[in-house]
Structure formats: structure tokens, C-alpha cells
# Entry
Amino acid sequence: MIGYVTLGTHDLKRAAGFYDAIAKDLGVGRMMENDTFIAWGKPGGGAGLGITKPFDGKPATVGNGVMVAFEAKDKAQVDRIHRLALSLGGKDEGAPGPRGEGFYAGYFRDLDGNKLNVFIME
# Structure
């Protein structure tokens, strides 16, 4: 149902480094980019993620209650990506661990404050 998700950024170059590292661990790369926008994913694959400078030229803001979740292949990848995000300057929003029956996830914020999660359904 979801084709892709786009998040705003103040600094496209800095945000690109953050998402390049996470996308690499998830096994995807950049699939589209220009001077104001970069997207990661696989054409014909699942939903992708884009970052952009807002079209209206106003500052990027974080949506209250908005979160993007990356599906991992196993718990080790959840743990690894959560650590990676923090090492790249992301902020911890909840260490990896069980979050209800059959759901294992870690939560963090990117460099612009957007809330993200990496998870596995067991």
C-alpha cells in the first residue's frame, strides 16, 4: 500500500551520510537523487525512503506521532542498525528489545529529529 515515505531535512548532505549507512546495512542503495532530494530502495521492491529539503523553502519540521519503521532480517540486524544510527549522531528513543509478543524493535531519531524504528516480527 505505501509506495514511499519522505522526511524533511535541513542538511541534505549530512542526512545522506546517515541514511546511506543504514540503507547499506538493509541491502539497498540510492535509487533517485537531485539537488534537493535523495531516495533509497529497490525499484519494484517494498516502500522506499526519501529525504528532501521542503519544497516551500520553510524549515523542515518533525511530525508529532510520525515514525518510519525499517524491517530487519533478524534481531542482530535490529541491534546493529540501532547502534549504527547512534554512532552516526542519531538519538536513542528506546533500546532494542521485545515490544509485545513477536515484535522486537529499537527506536531512534535521525539528525533532523525524525523518529525511526528498526524491527523484526517473529
In short: The two ends are 22 Å apart (CA to CA). The helical segments are 12-26, 75-87. The CA atoms of residues 102 and 122 lie 5 Å apart. The chain has one domain: 4-55+66-121.
